[in-house]
Design a protein that fits this description.
The complex is a heterodimer of chains A (111) and B (121). Chain A has strands at 4-6, 9-12, 17-24, 36-40, 47-51, 55-56, 64-69, 72-78, 86-93, 100-102, 106-110. In chain A, strands 2, 4, 5, 6, 9, 10 and 11 form a seven-stranded mixed beta sheet that branches. In chain A, strands 1-3-8-7 form a four-stranded antiparallel beta sheet, with no helix packed on it. Chain A contains no helices and eleven strands. Chain A is an all-beta fold. Chain A is globular and about 40 Å long. The relative contact order of chain B is 0.32. Chain B is mainly β. Helices cover 0% and strands 55% of the residues of chain B. Chain B has strands at residues 4-6, 10-12, 18-24, 32-39, 45-51, 58-60, 68-73, 78-83, 92-102, 105-111, 115-119. The chains are: A mainly beta (111), B mainly beta (121). The A-B interface holds A 31, 34, 36, 38, 40, 45-48, 51-52, 55, 57, 89, 91, 93, 97-105 and B 35, 37, 44-47, 59, 61-62, 95, 97, 104-114.
């Protein structure tokens, strides 16, 4: 069974920078994994942030950026705002019988 | 961007089935796929499966195969997800999500508002 791993929790001060990562149990995350990132606040549906490693949606603030880092997908938030406190999920593509797998999510706390 | 609107909350007894709808705001197109995911209380997201409105292709997570059926009604731009033989472990918020795909692109760009399904005797 394929497992996608994220940091369970991270904390950052307002104005700071934080990087969340997304790793695959099958090996390095690549462009063929088509990483997508989502933000979810309590009681709300997920909001798409990033697709295909680094493409922002039109509504995604510029302080959010995606990349590949050390064999993982990464989401960096620069100049963190209090409203960025939320759960963040990555989603990776594997094809085959289980084509898509979500990471377990990272709870980002803005202290 | 396609807007997705789901049906309302539902409660079922163990062993029953539930069918959730997801209506798209406009005609979908080739290169679009509707996925389904769920989130149990206090837990993370789990990919369930999906249907391609133009291709009719369906995919589902191995653990749910045999219990989940995903369909698309083109006359009303609506996707359906039916889950049978429900147990308490199926209690969750169920979401539909839209993916735009083409060569080197797989972009999830819209989500429904979610549908709470409660399984209880």
């Amino acid at each position: 069974q394929t497992v996608v791993t994220q940091e369970p929790s991270l904390s950052v001060s307002p104005g700071g920078t934080v990087t969340l990562t997304c790793a695959s149990s099958t090996g390095a995350v690549t462009s063929g994994s088509f990483p997508n990132w989502f933000q979810q606040k309590p009681g709300q549906a997920p909001t798409p942030l990033i697709s295909d490693i680094s493409n922002r949606h039109s509504w995604t603030p510029g302080r959010f950026s995606g990349s590949l880092l050390g064999g993982k997908a990464a989401l960096t938030v620069s100049g963190v705002q209090p409203e960025d406190e939320a759960e963040y999920y990555c989603l990776l593509y594997f094809g085959g019988a289980q084509p898509w797998v979500f990471g377990g999510g990272t709870k980002l706390t803005v202290l | 961007q396609v807007q997705l609107v789901q049906s309302g909350a539902d409660m079922r007894k163990p062993g029953a089935s539930v069918k959730i709808s997801c209506r798209a705001s406009r005609d979908t197109f080739a290169g679009y796929f509707i996925h389904w995911a769920r989130q149990a209380p206090g837990q993370g997201l789990e990919w369930i499966g999906g249907v391609g409105p133009m291709s009719g292709e369906t995919r589902s997570a191995p653990k749910l195969q045999g219990r989940v059926t995903m369909t698309w009604d083109p006359s009303i731009n609506t996707a359906y997800m039916e889950l049978s033989r429900l147990t308490s472990d199926d209690t969750a918020v169920y979401y539909c999500a839209g993916e735009t795909f083409r060569t080197n692109v797989k972009c999830f760009d819209s989500w429904g508002q979610g549908t709470l399904v409660t399984v209880s005797s």
